[in-house]
Design goal:
Elements lengths: L2 E7 L11 H15 L3 E8 L10 H8 L6 E4 L2 H4 L3 H13 L3 E4 L9 H34 L11 E3 L5 E3 L1 H15 L4 H11 L10 H14 L1
Parallel strand pairs: 1-2, 1-3, 3-4
Antiparallel strand pairs: 5-6
């Protein structure tokens, strides 16, 4: 029986911590392996990682585990790579290992000339899609910025209104005031951190730390 290693990946996105995308990919790959009577010996998955880079720990682990005759099974070509050079590099390394790539979506195996052509076309299209998505995302962010929408993480002392614009948060502003008062009295950051832990409680559900306090002080100094 032919042995197979399944590889899954999904891209960076806001819901990456709760995403089940890799689980669905694995299900389809396992169904493909069962239909072809492949023995799944391992499953590697990269979470919240771009397909435009080779710097993926589990992808590298999957390639390193390949031996002659093993099949690397991936759901679709864009899960393997969204960059043509990256795709071709992976393909070459798999071949050097004496293995081959197969896709669960029915793309013809790359062991045939026709299959290699189709797989390369799909890889080129995946790169095109990535470029289009990046352009649309950049344009969308620019439009939001023009409307005054704050795109980054809200600084301590502020919150977003319904339109996404920054407005003062009265509770956090009061906390910031205590920190700045201690700073103006020339207490060091370590002392201010301990004072905040004792007297203010957590900030946004997390303990105060020196980095947050330095950021608040720097932001205020930049305004002066």
């Amino acid at each position: 029986m032919t042995n197979a290693i399944i590889y899954c990946r999904f891209s960076p996105r806001p819901d990456h911590e709760t995403s089940t995308s890799n689980e669905r990919q694995e299900e389809r790959c396992r169904a493909y392996c069962a239909a072809h009577e492949y023995n799944v010996v391992d499953v590697k998955e990269d979470k919240n990682v771009s397909g435009g880079t080779l710097d993926r720990p589990q992808l590298q682990a999957a390639i390193a585990a390949l031996k002659p005759g093993i099949v690397l099974v991936v759901d679709t070509s864009d899960r393997l790579a969204r960059d043509m050079l990256v795709y071709l590099t992976i393909q070459q390394r798999v071949r050097e290992a004496g293995a081959r790539i197969e896709f669960a979506d029915g793309t013809p195996p790359t062991i045939t000339a026709e299959g290699e052509l189709i797989a390369n076309i799909f890889a080129a299209f995946a790169q095109y899609q990535r470029t289009v998505i990046r352009k649309k995302t950049k344009a969308g962010l620019a439009r939001k910025k023009d409307k005054g929408v704050y795109l980054g993480k809200c600084p301590i002392g502020y919150r977003r209104d319904k339109q996404g614009k920054l407005i003062r948060d009265e509770v956090e502003t009061a906390l910031v005031g205590h920190i700045l008062a201690l700073h103006h009295e020339r207490y060091d950051v370590s002392y201010i951190e301990r004072w905040c832990q004792t007297n203010l409680g957590p900030i946004r559900g997390k303990p105060w730390n020196e980095r947050t306090i330095r950021r608040i002080i720097k932001r205020e100094n930049d305004r002066e």
